[in-house]
Design brief:
The chain is of the alpha+beta class and 266 residues long. The chain is 50% helix and 9% strand.
Length: 266
Amino acid sequence: MVDLTALLSDLATESEQLDALVAALPPQEWERPTPAEGWTIAHQIAHLAWTDHVARLAATDADAFYASVTAAPDPGRLVDDGAVAFLAPPAVLLTRWREGRSALATALAAAPAGEKLPWYGTRMSPASMATARIMETWAHGEDVAGALGVTRPVTDRLRHIAYLGFRTVGHSFAAHGRAVPTAPVRVELTAPGGQTWAFGPADATDRVTGPALDFCLLVTRRRHRADTALIATGPVADGWLDVAQAFAGPPGTGRAPRTTASGAQP
């Protein structure tokens, strides 16, 4: 059984580590561009604050959540518009994010066991929602760290993201308009501590192997496949690495490769 309390504790730690990166930044630094085109550090934190807000609605008031979706003037711009709507001066934005993530944790902890919460194109258990929030917080934290030129410690919290990435094989193909394969995929990843994280049938012909960090960067679409050490065996696994996506919604353009055909930085 999934331990929701442990998930929420990991979510709080992930959030606190990102909070520590931005809390002391002077206001002008919040306008620093991040690797996500058109998004500053402020946009990244505003996005997390907005997503925490709508996730709390999903956990406490499904009607209000659905109303927020139907009221969107352009569903294709829901994510970008949500980030813009939550932009504020840094001190205000920081407080908004802190209060919102705390309220979400309280709401998820109070959600009835077995309940499925509404989300964009799917329904999620409280534990899955918490896992998705860990994934989002880590991924947007990578963008903030990239903007600041900081390399963050790699921790075992990546296992949550790796598992979510594995669970969303079918979603990844569907999000890109491709037929969902029926063949299973085995994923074997080298964890930060050197152990192996394995998901999927041990006898699956299609396999993905490599560093857990690279896999998490790929499924959050923070790295191009060409810039990872992941190895795909079999046509389904190979096709998956081109479209892997652990989050709901449209895939976006993804990140351009950092290396040329010769392996040199462009």
